Amino acid sequence: MKEISELKFPDDRGYTDDHEWAKKTGDGVRIGISDYAQDQLGDVVFVELPDVGSSFAKGEEFGTVESVKAVSELYMPIGGEVTAVNESLADQPERVNTDPYESGWMIEVKASDPSELDALKSKAEYLEMLKG
Question: What assembly does the database describe for this protein (predicted)?
Fold first, then answer.
């Protein structure tokens, strides 16, 4: 596992206590897991994601990530309806490890309450939490 200083945390998204991130993209919000989360999990071998059209409230479980070490639940950083799923993760789940913020994104949603984005941690707040 890497030191926190070796991990990447882009400024352009919000983070949760459960290590998911959310980023506004046009009309939607893209969601994935942080570099810290993928590093803790180890080699990701399977990602289970919901169907397009599914709706979830903030904090609800929307899927799972399976690594060689463990299975971890994925939780919604904001509420919304799933408008897109990263289908490439079915064949290439390792993208979550190699590029968790770009090619390793998981779902896109139409936010039910866009103001929920404002409640997410900034990069600085997330780093403070990780350093404990």
Answer: The glycine cleavage system is composed of four proteins: P, T, L and H.
